[in-house]
Amino acid sequence: MRFFLLFLTALFVWPQTAATREITDALGRKVEIPDKVERVICSGSGCLRLLTYLQAQDMVVAVDDIESRRRQFDARPYAMANPQFKSLPVFGEFRGKDNPELIMTLDPGTQVILKLVGTGKGTVGMEPGELQGKTGIPVVALKYGNLGKMKEELYGSLRIMADVVGKQQRAIAICRFFDDHIADLKKRTADIPEARRPSVYLGGVAYAGPHGFQSTEPTYPPFRFVNARNLADHTNPKAGEITSTDIAKEKLVEWNPDYLFLDLSTLQFGDQAGGLYELKTDPACQTLTAVKTGKVYGVLPYNLYNQNFESIFADAYFIGTLLYPERFADIDPAAKADEIFTFLVGRPVFAEMNARFQGLAFRPVPLK
Question: Where would you tag: which of 240, 280, 299, 344 has the fewest CB atoms within 10 A of its CB?
């Protein structure tokens, strides 16, 4: 009897081995994680955005320090829709510069670290294996991808992340949402002859901070989705040899696009610098026909802490209504933006975001 009682006591007192499962991350690493994951952290530019898309943001127990900054010109819809991120503990610096000591002292602790790698210049901070070794916490590597040639990387990471946090059906819905909107945009404009497609240029694109009007994006997704003639696109014969995202003023004058678009992230420079200031004061810009005729329009920043896919789609629908009004007659750009924001980040934030950028989104930019 005594032996039996000791056995029962041991059965209930001795620690039981937690159930685990194995997943394969975006680097092909086999990672053992808890069978049921309820607490995570997201490392790297845009990782928390993807988790928000999956409606699993409540699992986050800490954030990197970009979430605790209060910036006047913040245009990340996922953060605007989740102000609670600002009050969470900080586990490291932004862009993946993680602090193992801080991670290990989190209370409650994280069960899995979701870490983006290869977001342009390789992994920032520790490699996944090194971080896992220093913290003793499983690290699942992900790749951010995009809506173009690296779409499968994006979709693959969404599926991996969804498998970790138990949101597999939501991942399927997100990928379908992206595919359906890309198809809708392209279908509306696919049969428009080349000669009827206006020439366009986007200036003021942010890259690791704000830039002036010469900063552009040759593969800007909204232009490609609506089949606009982006004069900076490498596939456009008029573009010539462009090896960077900065366009010479002389080249812009030579192109003289039908429409100009201003990425409103450039407003972070203030009133005496940046893309808007250049459009108002630079003699080269003053020669452009679009400036003279008022065909300069503001669009939502899309490249803040990696690509904001929701803003990409919102901008694409606005640009479509402007260039091809008869093909987008059923679209109200602001309402469409909020429809997209609501599905992806859980709340309509267009008005709030637009207010941060002087109300210049989706309207002509005043240059006088």
Answer: 240
